[in-house]
Specification:
Elements lengths: L1 H12 L14 H96 L3 H19 L5 H23 L2 E3 L12 E8 L8 E6 L2 E3 L2 E4 L1 E7 L5
Parallel strand pairs: 2-6
Antiparallel strand pairs: 1-4, 3-6, 4-5
Length: about 240
């Protein structure tokens, strides 16, 4: 017993003399440790490779995201530029459209005026000639009114009346019509007042006498009637 304890004491005092499990290949515990390390090494390498792959993947994703962001910003800038150009072209197109509308309206007005002028020219082509014939018509009326009443002049008056009626008929066929005057309210467009007469027989501002006939041509005033107009007496 004493020898065994002494032997153990010597072994404890000299650690270098302790048995090394790793140096003993025949030790089963050593084999188990080596086996565990060999099995853990590929897993560690795989984990490290996985980590590196994840980091590379994240860097690649960040890089792609940055590129997409840059592309998106470039597209936004291009879109703003295109939108501004489109708005400018739209404004120009609207301005040209408004000009076209004004030109179209001006042309339509010009066409209507031209058509009206041509129509007036066709309708009133004989206006100047008729105006020159009206004094002749007046003279016929005066001649008939002042003709003597004796039998000798009767045939002469009948001939003048026939010529007068023919002339009136021709003028009527051209659209000439006489303006009503006596008994009508005074109308400055149809009547030319040359005198006022105080009278209670007619209402104020009424035509009481026609000094010269007025005429229209297809509704247009050729010559206003020359008239006397009633005026209320001051003491009435």
């Amino acid at each position: 017993m004493l020898e065994e304890e002494a032997s153990r004491g010597k072994m404890d005092e000299n650690p270098e003399e302790k048995p090394n499990l790793e140096d003993n290949p025949e030790n089963p515990e050593t084999d188990q440790v080596l086996t565990d390390k060999e099995e853990e090494a590929p897993a560690l390498e795989a984990e490290q490779e996985k980590t590196e792959a994840q980091e590379e993947g994240e860097e690649l994703v960040d890089k792609e995201a940055q590129e997409e962001e840059n592309q998106f910003q470039a597209l936004e800038e291009e879109l703003r530029s295109v939108k501004a150009a489109l708005e400018q072209k739209t404004q120009e197109a609207q301005e040209w459209f408004r000009r076209l509308q004004r030109l179209q309206a001006d042309f339509d007005n010009y066409r209507r005026r031209s058509r009206k002028e041509l129509q007036d020219m066709a309708e009133y082509a004989s206006e100047k000639l008729i105006l020159r014939l009206l004094p002749v018509l007046d003279n016929f009326e005066r001649a008939i009114a002042s003709a003597p009443e004796d039998q000798l002049a009767a045939s002469y008056v009948d001939g003048v009346n026939m010529i007068y009626r023919q002339l009136v008929e021709v003028l009527q066929q051209e659209g000439v019509a006489s303006i009503e005057a006596v008994g009508q309210p005074f109308d400055p467009e149809k009547h030319e007042a040359v005198m006022q007469i105080e009278t209670s027989e007619y209402e104020d501002n009424t035509v009481v006498e026609e000094l010269r006939k007025g005429y229209t041509l297809k509704g247009k005033i050729l010559r206003p009637a020359m008239v006397k107009v009633a005026k209320k007496p001051l003491n009435s």
